[in-house]
Amino acid sequence: MARAWRRLGWRWQQYHDQRRLCRGKGGRNAAGIGGGNNKNGNLDGIYKGNGSNIKITGGSVTATGGDSVTNLTGGGASIGGGGGGKGSNFTVSGDARIKTQGGKRNPGKGACMGNGGYWKNGQFVDGEEVEPDTSGLTTGWIEFYEPGADMDKDAPTSVITAPKPGPKATVDGTYKIGDKVVINGIEWIIVGIEGDVLELASAKAFTEEQLKDLEALIKTLLTNAQLEKLIADKTTGERVLLADENIAKEYFGGEAGHIVIRADKSILG
């Protein structure tokens, strides 16, 4: 179940969604999930607005930091400190699928996961990012967006996926069409096999904005070593394609937005 805390005026309210969906939007200068507004604006203020020891163990979470609306402090972090507050000790595990976006101020924006924007030496400073512990992340991911970006349409600036591949489709290393495999925390479905070459369709549907540049998209999903195992289309030379209508109907109920790659099976190594 996804849980988050959000500041509403002078009180806190817990959101608990049985569908494992959670949206956290920070109020004025507050974090989406984490600390409230530090009224003094700097990281050592009386009202620190810190947010720490935050654990997300699964589900779909969208968190947006509150925008800066005063001259005293910066934007709130998506997850972590409010404006002028620190964020620390984040743990993301299981199948958590997280979209993060700090609060606006230029300069002085909030981090996606970390500190809120703050005042230092006579000027505002962007909140620093703090790396989360993702050692327990299995099939999920964390997407980072710039303040003001459309998280449903725009491409993220960066993505964190599970640190290691999930289990192979079968114990003996053989595969069949329809098997599900995991690469860097992203689930794929085997939709074709030709010798040692697998045709893989992403279980995740991507946004129109992400699909505008398929080569840029695949580089956020695979490591350089894995990219070298991709097999380009003989006609177009492209390494990643949109899933055609037949694949969409057979595996995804006709849903558009899935991508297809062909790769040597050692990519699942």
Task: Offer a quick outline of the entry.
The protein is built from four helices and 19 strands.
Q: For the CA atoms, what is the radius of gyration? A: 21 Å
Give the total of domains.
2
> Order of strands across the biggest sheet?
3-6-9-13-14
**Dominant shape:** elongated
Question: Topology of this protein?
Answer:
Elements: E1 2-8, E2 11-17, E3 21-25, E4 33-34, E5 51-56, E6 60-64, E7 79-80, E8 87-92, E9 97-101, E10 113-114, E11 118-120, E12 123-125, E13 141-145, E14 158-161, E15 180-183, E16 186-194, E17 197-202, H1 208-211, H2 214-221, H3 224-227, E18 240-242, H4 245-252, E19 259-264
Parallel strand pairs: 3-6, 4-7, 5-8, 6-9, 7-10, 9-13
Antiparallel strand pairs: 1-2, 11-12, 13-14, 15-16, 16-17, 17-19, 18-19
Task: Give an overview in words.
The chain has helices at 208-211, 214-221, 224-227, 245-252, and strands at residues 2-8, 11-17, 21-25, 33-34, 51-56, 60-64, 79-80, 87-92, 97-101, 113-114, 118-120, 123-125, 141-145, 158-161, 180-183, 186-194, 197-202, 240-242, 259-264. The chain is mainly beta and 269 residues long. The chain folds into 2 domains: 2-161, no CATH class; 180-268, no CATH class. The chain is elongated and about 65 Å long.
Q: What are the defining features of this structure?
A:
269 residues, mainly beta, 2 domains, five-stranded mixed sheet, 4 helices, 19 strands, 33% strand, elongated
